[in-house]
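DM from R.C. (forwarded with permission)

"hey, sorry to bug you on a friday — could you get me a structure for this? deadline for the figure draft is monday and I only need the backbone to look sensible"
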Amino acid sequence: MSNDDETLRIDRWLYHCRFFKTRTLASKAVATGQVKVNGERPAPGRRVQAGDRIELVRDRLPYAFDVLAIPARRGPATEARSCYREDEDVMRRREERADALRQDRQAMPRTPGRPDKHTRRLLRQRKQR
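My reply, with the result:
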C-alpha cells in the first residue's frame, strides 16, 4: 500500500471522524460487518486512504461517504467533517428513515411510569407486526 502517513486503520479513521464515541465501538462495528470499504467487508486493521468509499450502518441508519483526507487526530467536528464527503442520496434516505422511526416511537402507547400488563401486551403486539 502507501506510506503510513497517507493511510489509517478503518477503526481509527471512523473514531477520528467522530462516527463512534470510542475506538472499541468502531472496531466492533467493523468486525460485525456494519462497515464496508469499497464494497467489501474489511477487518478492523484494514487501512484506508483518500479516495476510498466507506458505507456503514449505525443505529439502523445508513451512511455513505468518500474519504478525502486522513485526520491527524480526533479533533473538533468541523475538522473531522473536512476529511470526508457524504453522499447526498444516502443523506436524504437517512433523514427519511429517521423520520419514520420517530413516527413509530410517537405512535406507541404511553404510560406515566413503567408499562403495566396491558401496555406491555400492546407493545408486544405492535413489535410483532
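R.C.: lifesaver. The chain has one domain: 4-128.
me: no worries. Residues 88-107 form the longest helix (20 residues).
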